[in-house]
Design brief:
- The protein is α+β, with helices and mostly antiparallel strands and 139 residues long.
- It has two helices and eight strands.
């Protein structure tokens, strides 16, 4: 499962700029970990990201480490858009926050499910994404 997630994300990151929708400013990544209350990773959990404005949703499953990665198609006009992230009955609302003038850095956030709690860690997004992508390049 992790290989499928990694290949999908790599395909998006490494896509040639032949079409604008493959550019970094047309995607927003939500990634994180799902763990039980004792901190043990929960594999094979379905996580859903819903664009509140359109109702369109994106699905991912956690790997053996509890990691999930969702890539939504959000352009500059979507800055500030409301999103809902769900794991079963647990859900949280978040806002797509990014600098619209920055068309080079990956956009996204990290959200962890820890037991019944949801914790957003946007400052950890870039390092988690780098580790995620680095793990795929070592395989």
């Amino acid at each position: 499962m992790r290989t499928v997630l990694l290949l999908a994300l790599l395909a998006l990151v490494a896509a040639t700029p032949a079409r604008a929708e493959h550019e970094v400013y047309y995607r927003y990544t939500v990634l994180g970990y799902v763990k039980d209350a004792s901190g043990k990773p929960r594999a094979n959990q379905t996580v859903e990201l819903v664009r509140d404005k359109t109702g369109f949703s994106y699905l991912a499953q956690t790997d053996a480490d509890g990691l999930f990665a969702l890539v939504a198609r959000l352009g500059d006009e979507s800055a500030g858009e409301a999103l809902t992230l769900r794991l079963g009955a647990i859900h949280t609302r978040l806002t797509a926050r990014f600098e619209t003038a920055n068309h080079t850095d990956e956009r996204g956030t990290r959200i962890d499910f820890e037991g019944g709690r949801v914790v957003e860690r946007p400052a950890w997004f870039r390092s988690t994404l780098a580790n995620f992508l680095g793990a795929t390049s070592r395989r």
